[in-house]
Every structure is written in C-alpha cells, then in structure tokens.
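## Example pair
The file below holds two records. Each record gives the amino-acid sequence first, followed by its structure token line.
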Amino acid sequence: MELDLSSMMTDPTLANNPWPVYAGLRDHAPAIAAPFSRSRSGKVVILSRYEDVRKALSSPELFEANGANEMGQQRPVIP
C-alpha cells in the first residue's frame, strides 16, 4: 500500500469523511512509512492501531515526534 500524503492532507472529500481510509489503514497497513516532503526527514510513519500508537507515545527512546503541526494539514491533529 502506498500513500500520497500531500494530496490526502488537502483533499476536501477525505477531510469530510476520513473513516474509510482510516479503516483501510488499520486493516491493511497498521504501521506504514510514507514519503512526505514537509517533514524534516522526508518521510513519516503512520500508526493506525490504538496499541501501536500507545506504545509509540510511551516509548520516546524508540519514536520521535517531528511536530505534526509542521506538516501543514488542514484538519486538527488527532492524538
């Protein structure tokens, strides 16, 4: 599965109904690295399952947040 994050962040249709995409990520790509030119590293890792997000948030030695607000998304950051 490949994601085009730049268009996803600005697609008004997706912004109005992101749930099918979220379900697809949880079912088929619960942890996926994707190229994203607006992040400092040029890529981001998207976690879509609760337990994976929880582990990432409680393991700063394994995961570093690069500031999601810097990515330029149109909708609020979802913790």
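Second record, same layout:
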Amino acid sequence: VSANNRAKKFEKNAGNLDSRKQGFKIHHFVRALQPYPLAFGFLNRVRINIYKVSPQRGQRPVARFGSIVAIEKDALRVACGDGTVLIHELQPENKRRMTAAEFINGYKPKVGDLFA
C-alpha cells in the first residue's frame, strides 16, 4: 500500500462533536474515534469524552443544537440535526468512564445545558 492510499491520522482535537449533524452520523463518529482520540464535547466548561450514543429520529426539538432536551433515567437526550441522540456512556475529564445514570446522579446536569 502506498503512502497516498492511507487515511490521515486523527489529531487529538479531531473528536470535537458537531451536534448539527444527523444522529446516525454522530453515532458513527463516536464509534469511529474509539479507542483514540475519542469524541468529546464540553458541558459547563468541562471536557466530556463520549463513548456510547444512540440516534433517535423524529421531529427535531425546538432547542439549540447540542442542548440537553431531556434527562432520562439512563441517558441524556441531546438535540442534533435530525432529532436527538441519547448519550449512554461518558467520561468527564480526569474522571473515570461512567454510565449516563452515574453522571446524572453525580453532576446534576439540567435541561438546557449545552454540549458545545
């Protein structure tokens, strides 16, 4: 394989999540960036690595892209380009990887908080 046929290496900041994209593209993006460099966003100025999401098609909520539109028992529902994505597993910077339920109980995110 020649050097011209190889994909570019991901840079560390290549994982910044774009919540304007469609849910299935976000899902594939998160999966593609594992185990490195990981997809991430910022919530209340804290970098959050994202490990597992699932797209939820439907009418896009009247909310800013990337904002939390609902806090469910085991997921954060975040507005995206064609509906919402559910975030199931994440990791705040310098903390351990955790389920969304653990994150919700410990960090107390609010509806309207923005994943930027």
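Notes on the second record: The chain has a mean pLDDT of 91. The two ends are 38 Å apart (CA to CA).
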